[in-house]
């Protein structure tokens, strides 16, 4: 059967794999050999689902957005990941990975973060489990995202500035990988999206797949059918999207829409629309689409939302794009901000700026009146107030 | 016979030096190679700079960033090296990350290497299985030796597989670390060097990472065929310049 899931070597079509230096081979191999077995263990499943329920607050609601639906003359449902503990879907993955780390006998956690959402989600689960945690964050992002830096510190995490390269997310990821090279035995690296070497993209997608697992039964209750006509999500690295698409990947009736950040415009030189601007290459151990010079040097993306500001995209999404299974749309800063404000005023929900990009598609693209469109509301906007204030002069 | 294999037959410990092409100055590449050969270095690794060198510590990161800022790129490196075999006979290896090679085109890259007289490549993030399935035949067509790494954590079975796949030497990373991170060797490294020696591999081993002076060079090569110096050489180069390369090499052996 044709599938859009990873094969056993971690490839989605031509994308994925593990392009890692030998120093990382034992770590990744240990994870690769064990992740599926551990995830299937009843004790793991039990603890994972218990924590998702009691600690994260799952299931998150699937909410019929009446006024938004009226405005765009279609049926729009919102999957409320913004109501997760810590304010975004990121925690689904960190809960899964901290349990994985424990099963593997690791006693130290490292992570990278851009905006700080994944850093906070990691710091949170490390506090929960009493495990030492170091989060790498670009020096420039530390300055831009002070509240999340403070949150991580309050949670007992050490935030280490990434001083190399462009001092943003990609460099924080490099630093985390370097830390892992230097600490191969006791440390687990909690990657924050469906990126990096195999088995990370598949593992993170599986942890996030709880999103579409819930959408299926929730939509059945509300609409009498499990399958929407479309699932829409914003894509940075691609983890909230992977979770929202997961159980629909191989269901051709369900349209998959991926929304990327166009920044100041695709051709402005300040953009993060990887599917439009990227070429096949290797970033952080994965063969995927990435923004780079003709010479193969990785370039710095730009988006108003720090969480979409990544020069690559997960290999699942590269394959969805290349194969035509997914429809990829890119949204500028301005359109995203406008759509975010519209959601506030139509539905009383302040979205993260990442998520605002997903809502802008209703201005870009027509849906049929009786189409059921599920938008993954990946996070809430508290962390972005500074940006909203500056942008709208509030 | 490939220059690397020929060199390795010599009855001496190999001193191998790594430097980043385009650093300190854009056009230092050829003068550095000539100075290294003049001072008796056995193997030279020419670093092709990359924006995201994730196996490297701060020294090589900085030299890579500076080299790119100076304007170094793949085609330019090939231009600089074009006449190198008129003046230099020491084995030359290009070391870099896989993405720039992929963008140049693996076959085009290998072909250029052969034209110039490059003898081998070290691409740490090109994994063994992908190399064997997709690229081995291309490397062989252009007479290039691909050098693989092992670390203290590499399993015995995998070391054997790497030994089977290797045709020059094995790059033995001395400890679990990025480049330039640790200096000197403890009992752990000595045990590791011994363990590998006892495996009686078909390829000689050359130790890299953590070698910075004559002491560490001695220790690293007691049981192995040679050692590679990178970060310490680049630091010397930054402080003293190309004209003092002889001073550095003489300090090692
Ligand atoms: C709310 C929210 N949505 C989306 C993203 C983008 O990440 P991903 O594409 O992995 O879901 C982030 C990342 O920080 C985020 O905080």
From TrEMBL, chain A:
<dbReference type="InterPro" id="IPR023026">
    <property type="entry name" value="Trp_synth_beta/beta-like"/>
</dbReference>
<comment type="subunit">
    <text>Tetramer of two alpha and two beta chains.</text>
</comment>
<dbReference type="GO" id="GO:0004834">
    <property type="term" value="F:tryptophan synthase activity"/>
</dbReference>
<dbReference type="GO" id="GO:0005737">
    <property type="term" value="C:cytoplasm"/>
</dbReference>
<keyword id="KW-0822">Tryptophan biosynthesis</keyword>
<dbReference type="Pfam" id="PF00291">
    <property type="entry name" value="PALP"/>
</dbReference>
<feature type="domain" description="Tryptophan synthase beta chain-like PALP">
    <location>
        <begin position="57"/>
        <end position="379"/>
    </location>
</feature>
<keyword id="KW-0456">Lyase</keyword>
<dbReference type="InterPro" id="IPR006654">
    <property type="entry name" value="Trp_synth_beta"/>
</dbReference>
<dbReference type="InterPro" id="IPR001926">
    <property type="entry name" value="TrpB-like_PALP"/>
</dbReference>
<comment type="function">
    <text>The beta subunit is responsible for the synthesis of L-tryptophan from indole and L-serine.</text>
</comment>
<feature type="modified residue" description="N6-(pyridoxal phosphate)lysine">
    <location>
        <position position="90"/>
    </location>
</feature>
<dbReference type="InterPro" id="IPR006653">
    <property type="entry name" value="Trp_synth_b_CS"/>
</dbReference>
<keyword id="KW-0028">Amino-acid biosynthesis</keyword>
<protein>
    <recommendedName>
        <fullName>Tryptophan synthase beta chain</fullName>
        <ecNumber>4.2.1.20</ecNumber>
    </recommendedName>
</protein>
<comment type="similarity">
    <text>Belongs to the TrpB family.</text>
</comment>
<keyword id="KW-0663">Pyridoxal phosphate</keyword>
<keyword id="KW-0057">Aromatic amino acid biosynthesis</keyword>
<comment type="pathway">
    <text>Amino-acid biosynthesis; L-tryptophan biosynthesis; L-tryptophan from chorismate: step 5/5.</text>
</comment>
<dbReference type="InterPro" id="IPR036052">
    <property type="entry name" value="TrpB-like_PALP_sf"/>
</dbReference>
From TrEMBL, chain B:
<keyword id="KW-0057">Aromatic amino acid biosynthesis</keyword>
<protein>
    <recommendedName>
        <fullName>Tryptophan synthase alpha chain</fullName>
        <ecNumber>4.2.1.20</ecNumber>
    </recommendedName>
</protein>
<dbReference type="GO" id="GO:0005829">
    <property type="term" value="C:cytosol"/>
</dbReference>
<keyword id="KW-0028">Amino-acid biosynthesis</keyword>
<keyword id="KW-0822">Tryptophan biosynthesis</keyword>
<dbReference type="Pfam" id="PF00290">
    <property type="entry name" value="Trp_syntA"/>
</dbReference>
<dbReference type="GO" id="GO:0004834">
    <property type="term" value="F:tryptophan synthase activity"/>
</dbReference>
<dbReference type="InterPro" id="IPR011060">
    <property type="entry name" value="RibuloseP-bd_barrel"/>
</dbReference>
<comment type="similarity">
    <text>Belongs to the TrpA family.</text>
</comment>
<feature type="active site" description="Proton acceptor">
    <location>
        <position position="56"/>
    </location>
</feature>
<comment type="function">
    <text>The alpha subunit is responsible for the aldol cleavage of indoleglycerol phosphate to indole and glyceraldehyde 3-phosphate.</text>
</comment>
<comment type="pathway">
    <text>Amino-acid biosynthesis; L-tryptophan biosynthesis; L-tryptophan from chorismate: step 5/5.</text>
</comment>
<feature type="active site" description="Proton acceptor">
    <location>
        <position position="45"/>
    </location>
</feature>
<keyword id="KW-0456">Lyase</keyword>
<dbReference type="InterPro" id="IPR018204">
    <property type="entry name" value="Trp_synthase_alpha_AS"/>
</dbReference>
<comment type="subunit">
    <text>Tetramer of two alpha and two beta chains.</text>
</comment>
<dbReference type="InterPro" id="IPR002028">
    <property type="entry name" value="Trp_synthase_suA"/>
</dbReference>
<dbReference type="InterPro" id="IPR013785">
    <property type="entry name" value="Aldolase_TIM"/>
</dbReference>
